[in-house]
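Example S7 (structure tokens).
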């Protein structure tokens, strides 16, 4: 075989391999459900010290109380409110994507509500209880893609059970002292979980929790058909809104910064295919 023929053959084989790999990638994207594209590792094992059922019950009670107070003040948006309907549409696209991150989410009674307030805030409590304040939608002039990123982020906190882990950590030595009783039953931690409802609205997550929620939320939203690039524009808006003396309440528990934006930018390409797949289906 001549040298030139050998070079041509090798060149074709390499190009053929590239084309086959690309075709295989496209085929896998078009096939069944894909595994997680972002890497966040396992949820903290500390969460197992706090009973999920009792914490979710406490969250449901606190959520109901919050809605009752908003309703009494005329601040709870009715079902036909345009912004409320917008949130419901986005939630319906994200909720089906949640089970792969937490199997308990299949049994959660997901709920989303809109509260009239100038606060720039939103949250999702354990068990899938979501609330947005009109301030975050109106003052930041959020697109649907950006709302999808916020909702995905908040849902991710619930799915990854960050509240369970933070509450367990906050108990410190008290948790360790009651651990013997816990091995035989729920004991003190069960009582504690039932009494932390008011803390769930102001709970501060760690930087690792926030990164975790950013990435899982990014993927949830992309799977729901929301442009992952919106995660970057969202946090840029947050950074601008936080420039005043009294920044948004959302930033008190979700601090913004260049590092956060850079990490999101680095992960956008990982979920771009999921977004394109959702948009074409």
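Recovered sequence:
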């Amino acid at each position: 075989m001549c040298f030139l023929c050998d070079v041509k053959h090798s060149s074709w084989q390499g190009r053929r391999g590239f084309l086959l790999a690309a075709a295989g990638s496209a085929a896998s994207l078009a096939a069944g459900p894909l595994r997680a594209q972002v890497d966040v590792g396992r949820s903290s094992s500390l969460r197992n010290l706090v009973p999920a059922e009792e914490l979710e019950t406490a969250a449901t009670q606190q959520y109901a109380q919050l809605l009752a107070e908003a309703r009494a003040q005329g601040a709870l948006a009715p079902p036909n409110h345009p912004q409320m309907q917008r949130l419901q549409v986005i939630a319906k696209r994200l909720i089906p994507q949640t089970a792969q991150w937490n199997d308990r989410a299949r049994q959660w009674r997901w709920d989303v509500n809109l509260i009239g307030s100038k606060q720039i805030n939103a949250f999702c409590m354990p068990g899938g209880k979501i609330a947005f304040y009109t301030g975050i939608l109106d003052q930041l002039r959020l697109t649907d893609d950006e709302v999808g990123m916020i909702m995905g982020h908040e849902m991710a906190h619930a799915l990854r059970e960050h509240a369970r882990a933070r509450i367990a950590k906050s108990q410190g030595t008290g948790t360790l002292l009651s651990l013997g009783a816990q091995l035989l039953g729920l004991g003190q931690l069960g009582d504690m979980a039932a009494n932390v409802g008011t803390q769930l609205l102001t709970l501060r997550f760690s930087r690792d929790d926030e990164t975790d929620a950013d990435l899982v939320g990014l993927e949830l939203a992309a799977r729901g058909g929301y442009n992952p690039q919106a995660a970057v524009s969202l946090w840029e808006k947050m950074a601008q809104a936080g420039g005043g003396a009294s920044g948004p309440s959302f930033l008190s528990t979700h601090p913004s910064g260049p590092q956060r934006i850079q990490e999101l930018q680095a992960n956008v390409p990982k979920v771009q295919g999921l977004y394109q797949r959702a948009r074409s289906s």
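Notes on this example. Confidence is low (pLDDT under 50) at residues 1-32, 173-187.
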